[in-house]
Design brief:
heterodimer, A: alpha+beta, five-stranded antiparallel β-sheet, 10 strands, 48% helix, B: four-stranded mixed β-sheet, 13 strands
């Protein structure tokens, strides 16, 4: 019998109660209503996004995915220095309402390119912490011992801008806190003493460390390339819009960076598949690992590029020289890693 | 990349007592390898140098693919000697400005864990006193060049520097190092858990008093740690080292923001339990001394009473990339 009156397939409504507390964003299916106090972002197959307001019923075309996110506010504790675990920053942030001046909200782009499944607050917090620690280690943000009030304000300005440019969230408050109740550094050191003793004997039989296993995951290569594909045009767009003081030399450097970024973006969109060295010719496993490593490093350079854009937007005229030098370094790293990702080492193969 | 040298040299002692020189040069990369190592007639040695440099670079925060560094070694060490490894790593860092020493460096040390930045040991026995020696009793971790804590070690060790001023040519910066590890059995006096080897009893007492007072100011400082305090030089007078000591202690206990470079501090206190910092003598010569030795990333900490007299210092330090703060009390902000 023909199923003429078949009900449209309807997924059971997912549990959305964690949204706004432990989870920032969750995938939603077609036909579901956007939960209360949430906003939905619909992502099409090309990575373009549009928003749907709360209460509306989502109608997704084939190839589209949708996320519902709760704007917050959220509060997390970050550790700015890995070697100082008893000292933290308590950061309150929220996803702001849509900025009408930009074509695509940064948070929508973040969801489109980096979210895989539910976006847990703890996971997001790790990413923010990594970005903060990196900016501090490279000297792009300064948080020295006995910080004075002026230095703290400069840090706050840079940190707010970094989080907005990199993740699309707005920092509402940020205060230094003593994490001594939750983290006991003495116990951490004691645990290290205990775990170091047996490792020396068992080093051969240990399983692969988790970081190494993640580094050799082919999925990480695909995700890295997707991020580069989606975000590089937006980086270029933001760099093009950056307000610069007039001057022929600066203009030339700006144009040169944009031109090179354009070529990098082209290189990403024409990147060969991971497992092929030529059409129909498989690539050796260790070469695939090398390619994965380079695409991951290219993504690290992309993160640095977002951080650099944040610095450009609040920089004074006298800092621009150093910033453009750093930009040239980041673009050179992108060119290098993408070139290596594309390359097939011919000399290692049997002739 | 302005202001960086194109060439850097680092020396090392060989087992037969002669010195070898490691030379590193930097040039535009132009699609070449990131590091190139050369040793005349010893391809295995060049291979090992390349491995060491690449592993040690994994601990750096900033990656730059624009430059190629070429490293060469002028003598051939014996087949089983590894004491030159630290010199190669330091030369590679010096030529890229990651490490900026004030004087020519003589370095000896080897490691099995360069990827973690650790220096396992050294073989040199009769090295001169100014030599930089790797190993647990010397430079155990590359971060220690700027006083940082090794983020994976079971003993937290941090250093801070203070000016030694006597008005002569021997004025220099001296480091103070605090190592802490967890106290297993609690109870007893805090002063008994602090060891200060090598100082006379008066100075030992001063060190213990300052540390106990500053830990008292900290809500969870007391009764948790066994500590060892060491000084770069043993003969000095006065108590202007106290602020550096207290800052090194806070760094080691993981309760202070980390500077990118070194902490250079001078100051004392009659009330560390209140966290107060009092002024010390010789403001101008000490400021000049600290400024002379400061490099990019360093943090200079001075007592708040000096705030009126140091505008020139702040300016000059900012040009070098260092920062200055006059503090009234220790603690966050």
């Amino acid at each position: 019998m023909k199923a003429i009156f078949k009900w449209p397939e309807r997924a059971a409504p997912a549990d959305m109660s964690a949204l706004g507390a432990a989870v920032i964003a969750m995938p939603v299916h077609s036909g579901c209503a956007v939960p209360a106090a949430c906003v939905a972002v619909v992502i099409d197959s090309g990575g373009r996004t549009r928003r749907a307001q709360e209460g509306s019923r989502l109608q997704l075309a084939p190839g589209e995915a949708a996320y519902a996110f709760h704007p917050g506010p959220y509060t997390v504790d970050l550790v700015p220095f890995g070697a100082a675990p008893e000292l933290g920053l308590r950061v309150g942030f929220a996803v702001d309402s849509a900025d009408p001046r930009v074509a695509q909200q940064r948070f929508d782009l973040f969801l489109a390119s980096e979210a895989h499944g539910p976006l847990a607050l703890a996971h997001f917090c790790q990413a923010v912490e990594a970005a903060l620690q990196r900016a501090l280690a490279q000297g792009n943000l300064e948080l020295p011992p006995c910080t004075s009030l002026t230095e703290w304000n400069a840090f706050r300005a840079g940190f707010n801008q970094l989080l907005y440019m990199r993740f699309g969230v707005t920092v509402e408050e940020c205060v230094p806190v003593d994490l001594g109740e939750s983290v006991d550094f003495a116990a951490v050191l004691m645990a290290r003493t205990l775990e170091q003793a047996p490792v020396a004997q068992l080093s051969l039989s240990l399983p692969l460390p988790r970081a190494l296993a993640a580094a050799s995951d082919p999925l990480s290569d695909a995700r890295a390339l997707r991020r580069l594909f989606l975000e590089l045009p937006c980086v270029m767009c933001a760099l093009r819009l950056a307000v610069l003081p007039p001057g022929q030399l600066l203009f030339r450097r700006h144009q040169d960076l944009l031109r090179r970024l354009d070529l990098v973006s082209l290189a990403v969109s024409s990147m060969p598949a991971l497992e092929l060295s030529a059409p129909g010719v498989a690539l050796a496993k260790h070469e695939q690992l090398r390619r994965i490593g380079h695409s991951r490093r290219a993504v690290a350079a992309l993160d640095e590029a977002w951080a650099l854009l944040a610095r450009v937007q609040i920089a004074g005229a006298q800092q621009l020289d150093a910033l453009f030098d750093d930009g040239a370094r980041i673009v050179a790293n992108l060119e290098y890693d993408l070139g290596e990702r594309r390359m097939v080492a011919t000399e290692n193969q049997p002739a | 990349m302005s202001g960086l040298p194109d060439t850097a040299q680092c020396r090392s002692l060989l087992a037969d007592g002669s010195r070898l020189t490691v030379t590193a040069t930097r040039r535009p990369r132009l699609d070449r390898a990131d590091v190139k190592c050369g040793a005349a007639g010893a391809p295995m040695l060049a291979e090992r140098m390349l491995t060491v440099v690449r592993l040690a670079r994994l601990t750096e925060a900033c990656f730059d693919s624009r430059d190629q560094v070429v490293i060469s070694i002028d003598r051939r060490p014996g087949p089983h000697e590894r004491d030159w490894e630290l010199a190669v790593v330091l030369a590679d860092r010096m030529v890229r400005g990651v490490y900026r020493p004030q004087a020519p460096v003589l370095a000896n040390g080897w490691s099995d864990e360069w990827q973690l930045g650790r220096v396992t040991g050294r073989d040199a026995i009769d090295a001169p006193p100014h030599a930089l020696l790797g190993g647990p009793d010397g430079l155990a971790h590359l971060g220690m060049l700027t006083g940082q804590v090794d983020a994976a070690a079971a003993v937290a060790t941090a250093r801070a520097w203070f000016p030694l001023h006597s008005g002569g040519i021997n004025d220099s910066l001296c480091w103070v190092e605090v190592s802490v590890y967890p106290l297993v059995r609690e109870g007893g006096e805090e002063e008994d858990t602090i060891a200060v080897p090598g100082l006379d009893s008066t100075q030992q007492l001063a060190v213990r008093r300052a540390l106990v007072g500053a830990r008292h100011f900290d809500p969870r400082g007391l009764g948790r740690w066994r500590s060892v305090v060491r000084f770069g030089q043993r003969s000095f007078h006065g108590n202007s080292f106290e602020l550096a000591l207290v800052m090194a202690d806070r760094l080691a206990r993981g309760r202070e923001f980390m500077p990118r470079g070194r902490i250079i501090a001078t100051g004392c206190s009659s009330a560390w339990h209140a966290g107060r910092v009092d002024p010390v003598d010789c403001c101008e010569p000490k400021c000049a001394l600290m400024l002379r030795h400061a490099v990019a990333g360093d943090r200079i900490l001075l007592p708040a009473a000096w705030a009126g007299a140091i505008e020139a210092l702040v300016q000059a330090a900012a040009e070098k990339g260092a920062s200055v703060a006059c503090i009234e009390r220790i603690g966050i902000i």
